[in-house]
Every structure is written in structure tokens, then in C-alpha cells.
Input
Amino acid sequence: MPNTQDADEMQKPVLSEIQSKILLALLLRGKVSSLDILQAVGISGSTWNKEKMLLQNTGLVESQVTRELAESGVVRKMEFRLTLKGRQVAQNLLAITSLIGDESFASEKIENVLELIVKA
Output
């Protein structure tokens, strides 16, 4: 008889490398546009759309529509940020990344990882 506990464990969501990088980028930058994510993580628009839906469905990322007045009229902007759950996951990822020495975000010049982790 198969072990149902192992089968249940296999059903739990797992973050991909791209999703982890998106969460870290959002943690470091706060509220950002899709273009900011594409540039920070180095992914295509179609990849971002797929990953964005997965992250939103797991409750890690939320979107907000804003409107700004420009010379050409009202411009609608979609911005993304971490939910509380997403912030907690990203903070843990940041701590793990610093422990294993991943240099993916070395250019961000994170001077104090602990400071980012304890941010509300």
C-alpha cells in the first residue's frame, strides 16, 4: 500500500528558481512594475505572466492598479508587491541565500541581511 503521507507532501507547492528570484526582487525593491521585474530577474514577458499567476494564486504576490495624470491623459499602471506571507517567504529565502553564498543579488549590495529580515 503506498504511503499517502508522502503523496501529500509531493502535492505541496514548491518555489522554482525564477519564482525565488522574483520574490527576492520584490523584497528588495518594494512595489514594482512588470518592466522592473523583467529587468531585475531577466525573464520574458510570457514567463513573468505565468509566474505572476502562480505567485498570486499561492498568496505570495498581489497587484494594485494605479492611475497617473500624464500629458497624454490618464495612464493606468499595474504594480506588484509581496503579501505578508510573500514577505515572510522572501525573507527566509534571503537568509538562506546569504548562508549558501548565492551571488545572484550581489549587485544589490545588501549590507545588512538582518535589517531586511526584520523589516515589517
